[in-house]
Design a protein that fits this description.
Chain lengths: 284, 322
């Protein structure tokens, strides 16, 4: 069907108008964050809209590092991130591989349990887990934040791996086995290198969930400032130096949390979609 | 000479064959070994807490309770449904939040994904711009909104004043708190948009061509091809949106504090649970509250899944054996 050029033009104008207005609305809070992070203290309490900071206070960025133990927060956060990545790369891939490729009695039963736990809301485990960790003396330590992640306690990652591994043709698996490759060898030499998209996707999830986690650090290490993560530190900054006077520093801190996420997503975005949607994992 | 090489090779092959046989004979054990870390985690972090939580909800476990917590039967539950004013209030607030944020987010995400899927020039840039806010860590997004919505120094009110509208006390007036929370949740619709976009790009082009040959208009294509084929993705986003929405916590905790703001207009259900558990230390009661939320989510999920075969279209794609 050939479209009338005038209709086409009108259609294009409408499309671009919607997209442009929408994109501006979406970007305004971020632009405002950047702008506020570069404002001097007396400029943030001006009650007039001023999007371009004048003067530009670059010194806010180094100043935040003096005012708050950012390096400590970042180190604590990275410990959790590393544990999460280890769990996502080793135990989760092994389990996903077993569910996809190794026939063992009760596999469907165990997989059913796995699917059920994906639907289990966090709230019903919150209190008993807290009491349990408190009982074994792990309250106010990193243990409760690290141990589940090291064990790869995430049904969603295992599910994604399993869906991806199932999509890899049987022949590859079989011929490797016939050539004398062990189950472990097939997993390590063939499946892992072929699984870059799903590995990238799960790594992004693991990184961002660990980076963003707020409730469990709040409950377990909230009262131990030496173990605060970036998220806890940012939240605490809200009441720093009176509510409104530290808006610029809050925005500096926000930028520090946002930039690594942007970097991770920038490098991983092309894998993210293909890794998650491969083999119709969304349809389950 | 040759014989010795052959012997060596035979030896090697024999070794490999034996290893292979060993793996094959023990593959069930290997399978169990591979899933063991997950299964241990499941027992420690899912099954036991789930059962213990159920048990706790029938006890009067509080801070300072030593030994076995006293069993009080369904007393916690009767208190929730007859005495606890905050139960009704927090449930209402949560449903209000859900009722707006879930459908609005779906509509925004789906419409923008549809437009982006038209493959006009510059789409990648627009896709990125819409997606970036959902990459912002939730804590950062929330403190940004706390500033953005600040009555005097926030962007939104200064903008409203600039265009001659009346400023709103976004975070301190009871009427505006829930809309503020909904606004914050809408800012992150990009994640769902990306999932929709991936689904849209998976729709075979020839279906549209066939429709065009049969004289179908754009609307026909939307209602008879795109929407039916997208129902699994819509269903997925709806389900996840509801389950997450019922457990909304961090945004509210950071934005308006544990009390839920003036008139507790922002007291969502999870905040009520959190307060009972970690401020009042009434663990038994909080456990009962969490069980109620679990049951609500569970029933809703089952109902959604059950009714989904009426409107979710899985096409002729064969689900191969698990």
């Amino acid at each position: 069907m050939i479209e009338d050029p005038r209709t086409k033009l009108v259609r294009h104008i409408i499309i671009y108008a919607i997209l442009t207005v929408g994109a501006i609305v979406m970007m305004v809070p971020l632009l405002w964050t950047v702008s506020t992070s570069l404002k001097t203290r007396d400029k943030i309490t001006i009650r007039r809209l001023e999007l371009i900071p004048d003067p530009v206070a670059w010194e806010n960025y180094p100043y935040l590092f003096e005012a708050r133990p950012i390096i400590l927060y970042a180190r604590n956060t990275m410990i959790i991130v590393v544990a999460a990545l280890f769990g996502a790369w080793v135990p989760c891939t092994l389990a996903g591989y077993a569910f996809a490729r190794i026939p063992f009695p009760g596999r469907n039963f165990f997989f059913g349990i796995l699917l059920a736990t994906m639907m289990l809301p966090y709230v019903v485990r919150l209190i008993p887990l807290f009491l349990f960790f408190d009982e074994i003396g792990w309250n106010r330590t990193f243990g409760p934040l690290i141990l589940p992640r090291l064990l790869g306690h995430n049904a969603f990652y295992i599910f994604l791996y399993r869906q991806f591994f199932r999509g890899i043709p049987d022949d590859i698996h079989d011929s490797a086995r016939i050539d004398g490759c062990s189950e472990f060898g097939v997993w390590w030499r063939i499946f892992m290198p072929m699984s870059r998209p799903v590995l990238a996707a799960v790594s992004i999830f693991a990184f961002s969930f660990a980076w963003n986690d707020f409730l469990s650090p709040l409950i377990y290490v909230g009262s131990n400032k030496d173990l605060w993560t970036l998220a806890l530190g940012l939240n605490a900054l809200q009441g720093f130096e009176g509510d409104d006077n530290s808006l610029n520093l809050i925005m500096v801190f926000s930028m520090l949390m946002i930039i690594p996420m942007l970097v991770v997503f920038y490098f991983g975005q092309k894998h993210l979609i293909s890794g998650v949607t491969a083999q119709g994992s969304l349809k389950g | 000479m040759h014989a010795s090489i052959d012997a060596k090779r035979d030896n090697e092959t024999a070794w490999k064959v034996r290893l292979q046989e060993w793996w094959f004979r023990n593959r069930a054990l290997i399978g169990y070994a591979f899933i063991f870390p997950w299964f241990a985690g499941f027992i420690i972090f899912d099954a036991m807490p789930f059962i213990y939580n159920l048990y706790l909800s029938f006890t009067d476990y509080q801070i300072g309770t030593v030994g076995t917590p006293p069993w009080i039967g369904i007393e916690n539950y009767t208190e929730i449904f007859t005495d606890d004013k905050l139960f009704g209030k927090s449930m209402f607030n949560t449903l209000y939040y859900l009722g707006y944020s879930v459908p609005l987010r779906l509509i925004f995400a789906f419409s923008i994904a549809l437009i982006l899927n038209l493959r006009v020039r510059g789409m990648e840039l627009y896709r990125t711009l819409f997606y970036v806010p959902s990459v912002v860590p939730l804590v950062a997004a929330t403190v940004i909104f706390a500033g953005f919505l600040n009555t005097r120094y926030g962007f939104l009110n200064q903008f409203l004043v600039l265009i001659g509208a009346a400023p709103v006390r976004w975070l301190s007036s009871p009427d505006a708190i829930k809309p503020s929370l909904i606004l914050l949740s809408l800012w992150g619709f990009g994640a769902q948009m990306i999932i929709f976009l991936a689904g849209l790009q998976g729709i075979p082009e020839d279906l549209y061509e066939a429709a065009a040959i049969d004289g179908g208009t754009g609307w026909h294509r939307l209602f008879y091809i795109t929407l039916p084929l997208m129902t699994p993705t819509i269903f997925f986003n709806l389900l996840i949106g509801l389950i997450d929405g019922f457990q909304v916590f961090e945004q509210v905790f950071i934005l308006i504090g544990t009390h839920g703001g003036p008139l507790q207009a922002g007291l969502v259900y999870m905040l009520h649970v959190y307060n009972k558990a970690f401020r009042d230390f009434e663990f038994g009661y909080a456990a009962a509250l969490s069980v109620v939320l679990f049951l609500i989510i569970f029933v809703l999920t089952v109902m959604l899944v059950y009714t989904s075969n009426r409107w979710v279209f899985y096409g002729d794609a064969q689900d191969d054996e698990t």
